[in-house]
Amino acid sequence: MSKLLLVPLDDLVVFPAMDVTLTVDTGGEDRVLLVPRHDSEYAKVGTVAEVGDRIRLPGGGRAVSVTGLHRGVIGAAETDAAGKLRVEVDERPDEIPAPSKTRELEREYRAVVEEILDLRGDDGRVSAFVRAIAEPGALADTSGYAPDLTFEQKVELLQTVDVIERLELALRLQRERLAELQVRKRIRDDVEDDAQRQQREWVLRKQMESIRKELGDDDASVVDEYRTKVEEAGMPDAVREQAERELGRLERIGESSGESSMIRTYLDWLLGVRAGLDVLADLLAQLQLGEPLALDLDGELDALGDVERLEHLDLLLEGDVGRIADRVGQRAGLDDRALGSQWTALRSRATLLPTFRK
């Protein structure tokens, strides 16, 4: 047991073999114990350090350079005559285990660290530094240099005195860092790829627009025409949102894309569904008011979705308005899921209408 001056380090961990300059008062001591501290709570293990040069800072401050030697387990403490805290220290230099017990851990640790340094863009100097370390305990302590490790993780590493356990802990911490860095890289690459793709598509669209304008064929007029039709159709919200999404796709891919014809067919179908619903509403309104039913078999019934006109006429003459509403809805592509409450209410009205007979 040795008795050393305790030097608290707030939210800072100094490991063995580290050379640091600290703005602390070491008095005339040759060796001190550097102990991490957080919110007045001290770590159980500190670093026995050798005091080097004492430096006078601009403005009258003082600093000292110290070199970490090995770990020290803190024992009993007492205050000396000068009011400084001294503690009994059980000094624990690393005991080198048999190479057979650490060889695989060392190899894996170096491989993980190499991957981390590669992701961080190391110029080779840090990699060379890690490769030059031969002792397993000192190799594990290199994790203390990692900026991504938290204060608590570094304290846990410092308090792990057993070399094999320390190397296993350091390897686990470095694996976690590597996994996080790999996820960040994937996200960054995905974002960059997506941004580059969108930029390429934008440039190509602009080039195609310029070519079409030169040829007198402007896709913008086609999209604007469909947009006007959708706005004037009075579609239910769900249908209108779907139509607007398809319009956006058509605008992005342009008329020259093979997919554009499919999108235009779908938009035409949505607009036709809306027209069929309007015609059915007009027919039901006429029935409800007791007015003569003005049927233009070559006009209105065609708008219902290319229905079988004679069959519909038979249904009208029989007065089964509910069946008329269902048949028209089926042929025009109308259903509860697509048109929501409008179609449901319209179908309910149809079943309540008085029987119509010619």
Please, could you describe this protein's structure?
By secondary structure, the chain is an alpha+beta fold. Helices cover 56% and strands 17% of the residues. A five-stranded mixed beta barrel has the order 1-3-5-6-7. The longest helix has 53 residues. The C terminus is likely disordered.
User: Strand order, biggest sheet?
Assistant: 1-3-5-6-7
State the end-to-end CA separation. Answer: 115 Å
The count of strands amounts to 7
Indicate the proportion of strand residues.
Answer: 15-25%
User: What is the makeup of the main sheet?
Assistant: 5 strands, mixed, barrel
Q: pLDDT average, as an integer?
A: 77
Percent of residues in helices comes to: 55-70%
Whole-angstrom Rg: 40 Å
How are the SSEs placed, and which strands pair?
Layout: E1 2-10, E2 19-22, E3 31-38, E4 41-42, E5 45-56, E6 62-79, E7 85-92, H1 99-119, H2 125-131, H3 136-141, H4 151-159, H5 163-215, H6 219-233, H7 237-253, H8 259-288, H9 300-303, H10 309-318, H11 321-332, H12 336-339, H13 341-352
Parallel strand pairs: 1-3
Antiparallel strand pairs: 1-7, 2-6, 3-4, 3-5, 5-6, 6-7
